[in-house]
Amino acid sequence: MTEQSEVRAFYSGKNFFITGGTGFVGLCLIEKVLRTIPDVGKLYLLMRPKKGKEISKRLEEFPGNPVFEKLLETESKDIFNKLIPVAGDVGEDDLGLSQTDRDILVKNVNVVIHSAATLDFQENLSPTVKINIMGTRRVMQLCKEIKDLKVMVHVSSAYVNSYLTEAHEKIYDAPEDVEKVISLVKTMNDDALNEIEPQILKNHLNTYTFTKHLAEHEVKNCAHLFPCTIVRPTMIVAAWKEPVPGWTCSKVGPQGFLMGAAKGVVRRLPMCKNNIADYIPVDVVVNQLLVAGWHAAKKKSGLTVYHCSSSTQKPFRWTMLEYKVNEMLHKYPLKSAVWYPRLEFVSSLWLFRVTAIFVHFFPAVLLDMMLRLTGGRPILFRLHKNVWSSLGRLEKFIFNEWRYHNPNTRDLCRTLSAPDDKLFYIDISDIDWVDYFVTLHLGVRRYLNREKVSTLCAARRKDTFLLAAHVLWQIGIIYLLWLLVAVITGLTMTQSAWTAPLIYMLLSLL
């Protein structure tokens, strides 16, 4: 008799309530559930109107999302009838639910996966407390009311403990009294909050890590009432295997800068390339949410925390790719590239800022002028300006290294049967990071830059043209600087010929 999937059997017939279902992780989670658990019940998705679109209209757009392409190879669009939009917002009292919708959830839901959060490192305390802490409290209150709740899965972040260089799978002491923090947000205006923010955050890097840390305690407070589990992903990146290798809709982290590098507009990147960069593919995260939920429901008591991470199991360093990145950019170039791609890592922020003036801002001004002349929208200078202004907030994340130990995750992996290990894989020990980043780049090319495989031939021809243009541009710059030196010194071009190779060497350092 063929061994059956225990995880799939557990979720069959269960109704889900999912927050953050329209985000990167949420979309991948919904796709995974619909594709691999065909007997699942309803998936209630907490949604709010966006850009004037009602939630029913937002839901109608789901079948057109590329994440569902594989699902629709074997299923009709009727599969989306399992998705039930519920109007609400984690940032509002009672999740912004109507009494009718709340009664439906209380009566029918069996599994809660709370993924919604504000991820903006620039936000002040007010929105992050209202969404990340109070939103989690509201979700937990709903869980207390649900009649037949089997498990609650909370999506946290490994960086809630980023004030530690090494962290373990446990809940650390709260950095501040949560009631005090909530009271301050309710009674103080933003200016006053901004003034006292450093004293409140203490050694936390930003309001995101601070509030997500306190949110974990909201879950911990309910762990004696119903099965709960916390999964802490690190930096979530494109899919490794499913639904399609390389699928992504996120521009965060390496996906964003490879997107810009392929366009030719991101040419330098501040990076400590010898440090471990803790990346984890989104499909591994989704699998771990489902497996952790199954295991918590089976245990029925206690609260287990899982690091969904790679730093202590299969560490990645950018030195692995340093000499392959540009090869990859030219093997799979973009038809929409605006400059010849060339990405180099720089070891400090001050060096990045110096080089960015020459390789980012000057070309951005030129290209924005060309866009204006051709009727396009100039965006490059503003893009680089935004990056410039955000570097101070990101510096510690860029140049620090963290190690997130994951013995609980490894133990969880060992509990899986052979079918579950294949269907809900969470073991990353056999990932080949070099091959994976080629997959990620191809995913960025297709899903973020929106270029199909059929454009590759034309893209490679353009890449050759851009190389010629880049060489001519460099020759022109060298000639103009050579001429300027000759004029200033009063020497002839021949007499000052020594300046040409010197200028070339200086430009190569930028």
Automatic annotation (TrEMBL):
<dbReference type="Pfam" id="PF07993">
    <property type="entry name" value="NAD_binding_4"/>
</dbReference>
<dbReference type="InterPro" id="IPR013120">
    <property type="entry name" value="FAR_NAD-bd"/>
</dbReference>
<protein>
    <recommendedName>
        <fullName>Fatty acyl-CoA reductase</fullName>
        <ecNumber>1.2.1.84</ecNumber>
    </recommendedName>
</protein>
<keyword id="KW-0444">Lipid biosynthesis</keyword>
<comment type="similarity">
    <text>Belongs to the fatty acyl-CoA reductase family.</text>
</comment>
<dbReference type="GO" id="GO:0035336">
    <property type="term" value="P:long-chain fatty-acyl-CoA metabolic process"/>
</dbReference>
<dbReference type="GO" id="GO:0102965">
    <property type="term" value="F:alcohol-forming long-chain fatty acyl-CoA reductase activity"/>
</dbReference>
<dbReference type="InterPro" id="IPR033640">
    <property type="entry name" value="FAR_C"/>
</dbReference>
<comment type="function">
    <text>Catalyzes the reduction of fatty acyl-CoA to fatty alcohols.</text>
</comment>
<keyword id="KW-0560">Oxidoreductase</keyword>
<feature type="transmembrane region" description="Helical">
    <location>
        <begin position="464"/>
        <end position="482"/>
    </location>
</feature>
<dbReference type="Pfam" id="PF03015">
    <property type="entry name" value="Sterile"/>
</dbReference>
<keyword id="KW-1133">Transmembrane helix</keyword>
<keyword id="KW-0472">Membrane</keyword>
<keyword id="KW-0812">Transmembrane</keyword>
<feature type="transmembrane region" description="Helical">
    <location>
        <begin position="350"/>
        <end position="371"/>
    </location>
</feature>
<dbReference type="GO" id="GO:0005777">
    <property type="term" value="C:peroxisome"/>
</dbReference>
<dbReference type="InterPro" id="IPR036291">
    <property type="entry name" value="NAD(P)-bd_dom_sf"/>
</dbReference>
<dbReference type="GO" id="GO:0080019">
    <property type="term" value="F:alcohol-forming very long-chain fatty acyl-CoA reductase activity"/>
</dbReference>
<feature type="domain" description="Fatty acyl-CoA reductase C-terminal">
    <location>
        <begin position="360"/>
        <end position="451"/>
    </location>
</feature>
<feature type="domain" description="Thioester reductase (TE)">
    <location>
        <begin position="18"/>
        <end position="288"/>
    </location>
</feature>
<keyword id="KW-0443">Lipid metabolism</keyword>
<dbReference type="InterPro" id="IPR026055">
    <property type="entry name" value="FAR"/>
</dbReference>
<keyword id="KW-0521">NADP</keyword>
<dbReference type="GO" id="GO:0016020">
    <property type="term" value="C:membrane"/>
</dbReference>
